[in-house]
Design a protein that fits this description.
The complex is a heterodimer of chains A (101) and B (224). Chain A is of the alpha+beta class and 101 residues long. Chain A is extended. The termini of chain A are far apart. Chain B has 224 residues and is mainly α. Chain B folds into 2 domains: 152 residues, 3-Layer(aba) Sandwich (Rossmann fold), CATH 3.40.50; 58 residues, no CATH class. Chain B contains 10 helices and 5 strands, in the order H-H-E-H-E-H-H-E-H-E-H-E-H-H-H. In chain B, strands 1-3-4 form a 3-stranded parallel sheet, sandwiched between helices. In chain B, strand 3, helix 6 and strand 4 form a beta-alpha-beta unit. In chain B, helix 3 runs parallel beside helix 5. Chain B is elongated, with a radius of gyration of 22 Å. The chains are: A alpha+beta (101), B mainly alpha (224). Chains A and B meet through strand 1, helix 1, helix 2, helix 3 and strand 4 of A and helix 2, strand 1, helix 3, strand 2 and helix 4 of B. Strand 1 of chain A pairs antiparallel with strand 2 of chain B, so a sheet runs across the interface.
Chain lengths: 101, 224
C-alpha cells in the first residue's frame, strides 16, 4: 500500500486480492492490497454475514408498517438532535426474535 | 403507545433486520451509512467493546472511503507487532468517519445478550458518538429490563413495547402450512381447528414469556 501526497481520503477497493494500488483520475490512490487486513484489524466481527442469514429467514411483509410510523420517521429524520437519537424496541423473549420474521 | 403494542408483531432479530434493510434502502439514495451489530449470548467473548465499535467503524467506512487516519493508525500498529486499536483510538476514528457523512444509522440487536459488564461502556460510547454527531441515529432492540440501562444514558429514548399480534400468528401459521411437506394430509376443516386451538392456547399463555417460540413448539410437536 502507498500513500498519495494530496489525497485526504483513500478509496477502498472492493477486491481483497493482492493486485497493488491504482491511481484514479482524481489522483486518489485506490487501495486494493491490504484492505481486508485493515478491516480485520479494526474488528474480527462480520455483522454482514449474520444479517444476511436473518433477513433470508424473515417472514415477508410482517412488520413493514413499522417503517411508516410517525415515531420511526421522526427518529430517522434526525430533527430531534442528540436528545432524541435513540429508538428502542422492547420485548420479552419469544415474541419473534427467532421464529416470527 | 397502545397502538404500537397491538400492531407490532415482532422484535429482536426480525425487527432489526427489517429496520436495517429499510434504512439501507434509503441510505443508498441519500449518502448515509448504516452499521449494525447482532449481540449473541453464544459469542460474548468475541463481542468485547473494541470489537463492537471496530465493527461499526468497518461498516461506516466500508461504503467507499477509508480515511487516511485509519490507514496511518494501521501502519503504526503494524510497526509495533500489529497491536489492536484501543477504545479511544476507535472512537477517534469513528468520529472522523461519521463526520464525513451526512448521517449514520447504528442498529444494535438484542442488547440484553451483550456482555453485561461492558454494556455501560457500549452505551456511553454510543452517547459520546451522538453528542459529537447529533444527526447520528441509534436503533436498539432488547428485553424490557435493558430499558433502564438505556435510559441512564439516553433520557429521552423513544421506547416501543412489542408483542405478537393475532394477525401475525395467523400469518405465521399460514407460512408454516405452505412449507408442509405433506399438504395432502391437511384439509380446511382440520386447519381451521388447528388455528383456533393455537390462538386459544396463545391467549391463555403469558405471551411475553412464551410467544412465538411456544407456538413453534406446538406446531412441531403436537399439531403437525
Amino acid at each position: 500500500m502507498a500513500q498519495t501526497t494530496n489525497a485526504h481520503r483513500i478509496k477502498l477497493g472492493d477486491s481483497n486480492t493482492d493486485c497493488g494500488n491504482i491511481n484514479d483520475s482524481f489522483n486518489t490512490t485506490v487501495y486494493n492490497s491490504g484492505d481486508a487486513e485493515i478491516m480485520r484489524w479494526l474488528s474480527p466481527l462480520d455483522p454482514g454475514d449474520r444479517h444476511n442469514s436473518v433477513r433470508a429467514a424473515r417472514h415477508e411483509g410482517v412488520g413493514d408498517w413499522l417503517l411508516e410510523t410517525t415515531e420511526f420517521r421522526d427518529w430517522m429524520g434526525g430533527e430531534g438532535g442528540a436528545d432524541e437519537a435513540v429508538l428502542f424496541c422492547s420485548g420479552n423473549p419469544g415474541v419473534g426474535k427467532t421464529h416470527l420474521r | 403507545m397502545d397502538s404500537f403494542k397491538k400492531r407490532i408483531s415482532l422484535t429482536g432479530r426480525g425487527t432489526s433486520s427489517l429496520v436495517i434493510d429499510g434504512l439501507c434502502d434509503q441510505a443508498s439514495e441519500g449518502g448515509q451509512a448504516v452499521a449494525w451489530l447482532y449481540c449473541d449470548y453464544l459469542a460474548q467473548q468475541e463481542q468485547a467493546i473494541a470489537n463492537m465499535l471496530g465493527a461499526i467503524l468497518k461498516q461506516v467506512v466500508g461504503r467507499g472511503d477509508l480515511s487516511k487516519d485509519i490507514w496511518e493508525a494501521f501502519q503504526k500498529a503494524k510497526m509495533v507487532g500489529g497491536r489492536r486499536p484501543l477504545l479511544a483510538d476507535l472512537m477517534r476514528m469513528l468520529r472522523i468517519a461519521i463526520d464525513s457523512l451526512p448521517q449514520v444509522f447504528i442498529c444494535i440487536d438484542a442488547l440484553d445478550e451483550y456482555l453485561p459488564k461492558e454494556l455501560p461502556v457500549l452505551l456511553k460510547s454510543l452517547r459520546d458518538i451522538v453528542r459529537g454527531s447529533p444527526m447520528t441515529r441509534i436503533f436498539l432492540t432488547g428485553r424490557p429490563h435493558v430499558e433502564e440501562a438505556v435510559r441512564r444514558y439516553f433520557t429521552k429514548v423513544v421506547v416501543i413495547p412489542v408483542s405478537p399480534s393475532q394477525d401475525d400468528i395467523v400469518n405465521y401459521l399460514e407460512m408454516r402450512r405452505e412449507r408442509d411437506d405433506e399438504p395432502g394430509a391437511m384439509d380446511n376443516e382440520l386447519w381451521a381447528d388447528i388455528v383456533k386451538i393455537i390462538l386459544e392456547k396463545m391467549s391463555d399463555m403469558c405471551v411475553g414469556a412464551f410467544g412465538v417460540s411456544a407456538l413453534s413448539t406446538m406446531l412441531t410437536k403436537d399439531y403437525m
